[in-house]
Every structure is written in structure tokens, then in C-alpha cells.
Specification:
transferase, 24% strand, 208 residues, SAM-dependent_MTases_sf, alpha+beta, S-adenosyl-L-methionine, 8 helices, 2 domains, Methyltransf_16, two-stranded antiparallel ribbon, Rossmann fold
């Protein structure tokens, strides 16, 4: 007689061994990675939890046509591991991922990969910036950010949310040497306004 609990434990162990995380890189014209997408795959599944070659090709097409997709509404049908949809979201599309409602594990995995790739955090930030700038005409959002291959993502999100950068400088260019030598990295300072405003209209800058 075989213990049913043992069968369940063995199945769970098998699922863990069959699960892997694949990284998919997307490079710009200088052949430097702009960002990567992490996908949780399970080789035991036949369809929904495996990145098919067609998905890789479609994701690359979205990346190469990224300016076309920036700000667009995108629905990925039968998304599965969602690689094309995630790339579209990274370049500034409003994305809806769909799949068979009966395949609960696939839907759960879609949520996990969205969280893993932190797709909501930047979008929420830029939505807040847009709201604040719209509420205070003539205001400027001034920020510094550590560029970890995310500059293109920020460009796409500015287009998506109707923003533009009126000033972008190297953070070390105005920093005293005794402070600069204690820091490292590629740090940019940006001044961002609503896109319908001109730089002349934002002569009074306020940091809030």
C-alpha cells in the first residue's frame, strides 16, 4: 500500500526540479542591453508555462518596433508566459494579458512574472508625476536616477504619460570632487514637465 501523501510530495519535488527562470535580453543600437525580462518556466507543462520560439520572435518584433508600441493599448491573446506582452509593457504600452481561465496555474504564473519584472512600480510613479504636474501648471519634476540600463524605459514612459525631459545632465558634472570620489555609477539628473508645456513656460522651478 502506497502513502498518498508521499505521492503528492514527490509530485511537488518533480515540479520544483522542472521549474526554471529564463532571462531574455533586449539590446539597443549600440548592442548594449536596455533591459531584460525574467520568465518562470515549467518544462513539465505542454503549453502555458513554456516560452515557445514564436514568443521569442514576437517579443523581439515588439522591441524593434518599440516607438510604435509606446503609449498603445495592447492585448496579448493566449499570453502564457507573456514574454511579448511584458516587452510591450516595458516600452510603455497599456497591456492586458489573457489566457484560458480554466488554467489557474498559467494565470498565477502570469501574475508572478509581472511582479518579478516590477512592471507596475515605474508606471505608478509616472502616473503620480503626471497628476501632480497637471494639478500645478508650470511646475517641474526634478529627479536623479541611477541608470542601470533603464534609460530607454523612462523615455517610453514619458511618452506614454505625456511628459518630456527639458534638462538631462550627468550627476557628477556639477558635484565637487571631494563628494564625487565617494560615489560611483551612472547617475543622471532630469527635469521633467508636461509635454504641452515649453521650457519658457517653466521658468519657475519648484522641487516638491
Amino acid at each position: 500500500m502506497r502513502d498518498v501523501g508521499s505521492d503528492k510530495d514527490e509530485d511537488e519535488m518533480t515540479d520544483k526540479h522542472m521549474t526554471t527562470v529564463s532571462q531574455h535580453y533586449f539590446v539597443d543600437e549600440s548592442d548594449k542591453p536596455s533591459f531584460s525580462i525574467a520568465i518562470i518556466e515549467n518544462m513539465k507543462e505542454e503549453y502555458g508555462l513554456f516560452v515557445w520560439p514564436c514568443s521569442v520572435i514576437l517579443a523581439e518584433y515588439v522591441w524593434q518596433q518599440r516607438y510604435r508600441f509606446s503609449g498603445a493599448n495592447v492585448v496579448e491573446l493566449g499570453a502564457g508566459t507573456s514574454l511579448p506582452g511584458l516587452v510591450a509593457a516595458k516600452v510603455g504600452s497599456n497591456v492586458t494579458l489573457t489566457d484560458d481561465s480554466n488554467r489557474i496555474e498559467v494565470l498565477k504564473n502570469m501574475r508572478r512574472v509581472c511582479e518579478m519584472n516590477k512592471l507596475n512600480s515605474f508606471d505608478d510613479l509616472f502616473a503620480t508625476i503626471t497628476y501632480l504636474l497637471q494639478s500645478s501648471p508650470g511646475s517641474v519634476f526634478i529627479t536623479t536616477y541611477h541608470n542601470r540600463s533603464g534609460h530607454h524605459l523612462i523615455e517610453f514612459l514619458m511618452v506614454k504619460w505625456g511628459l518630456k525631459c527639458v534638462k538631462l545632465v550627468d550627476g557628477f558634472s556639477f558635484l565637487p570632487h571631494y563628494k564625487a570620489r565617494e560615489l560611483n555609477g551612472n547617475i543622471q539628473l532630469a527635469e521633467i514637465v508636461l509635454n504641452h508645456e515649453s521650457p519658457e513656460e517653466t521658468s519657475t522651478s519648484t522641487v516638491r
